[in-house]
Write a structure and sequence with these properties.
This protein is α/β, with parallel strands linked by helices. The chain has helices spanning 14-24, 42-49, 68-82, 100-106, 126-132, 168-193, and strands at 4-9, 31-37, 54-56, 88-91, 110-114, 137-144, 154-161. A seven-stranded mixed beta sheet has the order 3-2-1-4-5-6-7. Helix 3 (68-82) packs parallel to helix 4. The radius of gyration is 16 Å and the shape is globular.
């Protein structure tokens, strides 16, 4: 049986592209069944170009987790996801924390990537935070999503040296190279265990 993967994105979609490239090269042991986003973005364009089903589920305003409006949005997102019957959901630069409806329905099959060696530097500015802290090593992590912010059980991580010449952009790009490779490896490992 094919291992069905749905990817959630909010931005440029470079992590998604690593999965698309692996699929094109015959290195992905899974089917990319859909890509969803909270905004029209380059990631959705990449999916459309690759012939992958897409959906955009916009959040009308910035809704705080746990509010009735946010729970309704999250419940509707869970419904959109469920249409594709995914075995795995990959949060690949999806800049929203999932709330109770999604977690209750899919919490045991959502993974996320993060540009730091968790538990160090959680949150949206991990690369900037690592540089500000004077870290000499950071890296990339892939983990199971839970109700916290980047607090789920680690699946894998790999170190990346912080160079004296690094700024946020150069360091982030070197981390992304590792993050993309790890993501393909983890999806393949999970597909093999399915």
């Amino acid at each position: 049986m094919t291992y069905r993967v749905l990817v959630l994105v909010s931005g440029s979609g470079t992590l998604l592209q690593s999965l698309i490239d692996a699929r094109e090269d015959g290195r992905l042991a899974a089917e990319l069944v859909a890509v969803g986003a909270d905004v029209e973005c380059a990631g959705i364009d990449r999916a459309r170009t690759a012939g992958i089903s897409t959906f955009v589920h916009p959040m009308p305003t910035l809704l705080r987790r746990g509010t009735p409006e946010r729970l309704a949005w999250d419940s509707a997102l869970a419904g959109r996801i469920a249409e594709y019957r995914p075995d795995l959901i990959v949060s690949a630069g999806f800049m929203k924390l999932l709330d109770e409806p999604c977690m209750a329905r899919f919490g045991d099959r959502i993974i996320n990537t993060h540009p730091a060696l968790l538990p160090h530097f959680p949150g949206a500015h991990a690369v900037r935070d690592a540089l500000a802290a004077g870290a000499t090593t950071t890296g990339a992590s892939i983990f199971w999503v839970n109700d916290g912010v980047d607090t789920g059980e680690l699946i894998t991580q790999e170190s990346v040296e912080v160079l004296p010449t690094d700024d946020e952009a150069t360091l982030h790009e070197r981390i992304k190279v590792v993050e993309r490779r790890l993501l393909v490896d983890v999806v393949n490992q999970l597909a093999a265990q399915h």
